[in-house]
Amino acid sequence: MKKTTYQAIGLLVVTLVFHVILVIYTALFGKGKQVYVYLDNTVSTTFEPFTGIETLADSALLDSVYVKFVVNVHMSERPDGQPYATYPKGLVEFVRQGPKIICRLSADGRKAFIEGKKMKRSAGNEKSTDTLSVDVYVDRSFGRIVTDPKHLFVLSGVHLDSLSLYAVHPDFDIFLTDSCGIGKFNIDYRRRDKEYLSIYGNLGITGGSSVGDMLVNVHNDKINLSCGDCRVGTLYVSGDGGLTNIVPDKFGHICLRPEKGGMLSAGVTEITDDWDLK
Amino acid sequence: MNNDKFLVWPRFKAYFLKLMREHWKTNLVRIILMWAGLFIVVMWTSLSTYDFYINKYDQTFTPPKQDPMHSSEELIFVIFLFVIGCYWASQMMCDMKGKTGRIFVLTTPVTPFEGWLSRWLLHVPCFLIVFLAGIYVTDLARVAVFAPLVNHAPIEIFTWKWDYDFFSMMLYYAVSSSLYVLGSSFFPKRPVLLTSIVLFFVSWIYGFAMFFLYSGLSASGISDYAEIPFFVEQCYMGAVVLFCWWLSYRRYKELEIIDRM
After folding, report:
1. Contact A34 B226 (CB under 8 A)
2. Does residue B253 surpass a pLDDT of 70?
3. Which of A55, A80, A144, B246 has the highest CB neighbour count under 10 A?
4. What are phi and psi of A70, to 5 degrees?
């Protein structure tokens, strides 16, 4: 064979060897290795009793890294009923502000997400890594939630006389599960421009939960209701917008009260008994 | 008489012009085919893209800020650059297919470097110039045809942005075309086919080697990888381009009447 044939084969071999060395070198000594944020490294903080919680996690930032912010609300299991919260260390912080607490990303947490650090759970923990979940344990004086868009609130086994929820954006989900009992549940979606009409929020009452009076105030929103195993005394819908997937069997009364000059739409489903409308 | 000098300008110029004149028909057909292909593909895509803005547009849509054809045009041009660029580069030694052609090349009184350089100029830089001229002519035609028809989208002339991505793309083009330049001097008879087959098998070998390397590393407990430094990779690519051109010149120098590996 000619000399150049060997040189060409040499080029192919050198390229292969170069890449193998490069990979091994970066695997062993490379800088800028992926740094993980461990989600199951949690801490607990106790609070004096508070009446409300406000979430201010930066949803645009969390959205850009495909992370969902989930707040699980439970009743405090401590004998003295003191409220506390369990959350991933270093990512989330709680700030007391008068009667309420504010839950938001800490400076380190924001920095971690901006730098694109990946979230991870320690070996053996199979839970998903795309949710940043916070557990809040409340006492009976709790009664108000204010929230940013795209957060998920899960209330499990919570018994409260009244709960009012103020949603800044309808693209937000709240679920009641595990036999929640709420006397008066007041949900207020903030007034917004019509251009966001197609955004849906989810409002779920499941798992044997019961609500006495449920007041939903919509403003150009389309809210998707999901009624599982639940019981609601009276559903009042007011404002200007829509509520879909109402299962009439689960409600004692349904009252629609459109605001002046507004229009309400209510979608009903799963009608198994005779049901007369006027 | 200038005997055995590396590069003599008048002789080089004469040889370059001779090559151009000898192959002008083939090259003209290639250029026309390439321009016609570009023209048809761009016009066809424009028709389907602008159809929405001409017929189905309604005032509720916000008008696009950028010409909607630019992204698809960029893709079309890159595909043409790579496919036709590699084909063009592989035709560098096309006049050495048979014995007669090789005798003809060997007996032409130019130094090997002059012979190689004039071929390289014709098949790499000249191709780029013709190609860039082709895309601008096509684009001008597109703007001239569609600008009066489309009211709801800005119709602008396509320009490459002189950024890092453009530089990387040109580097990838240089690597692939230099591999085909090398292939054409190794297999002057069937350059496209044989170079592609060799590259196919080589990439399989590389793929297997990398697969076993990564599985070996993860078996030994290394699962977090740093990113491979891209700058080093690109420097290596630049070196490969220069080496391929040099090797192709070396191979050209070793040209014989009988075809041996």
Report:
1. yes
2. yes
3. A55
4. -120, 130
* Residues of chain B positioned with their CB less than 8 A from the CB of A28: 222
Residues B192 and B210: their CA atoms lie apart, in Å, by: 26
Option in A8, A11, A32 nearest B226 (CB): A32
- Least Cα distance to A182 among A211, A216, A156, A209 occurs for A211
Asked which of A193-197, A200-204, B75-79 is least confident by mean pLDDT, the reply is A193-197
Residues with Cβ within 8 Å of residue A237, at least 6 apart in sequence? A216, A218, A243, A254, A255, A256, A257, A264, A266
Q: What is the pLDDT of residues A52-82, one digit of tens each?
A: 888 877 777 777 777 778 888 888 877 787 8
Total residue length of chain A: 278
In angstroms, the CA B226 to CA A186 distance is 51
The reported pLDDT for the residue numbered B114 is 92
Would the CB atoms of B217 and A32 count as touching at under 8 Å?
no
Do the chains contact at A33 and B224, CB–CB below 8 Å?
Answer: yes
pTM for this one?
A: 0.62
Chain B contacts of A13, Cβ < 8 Å?
A: none
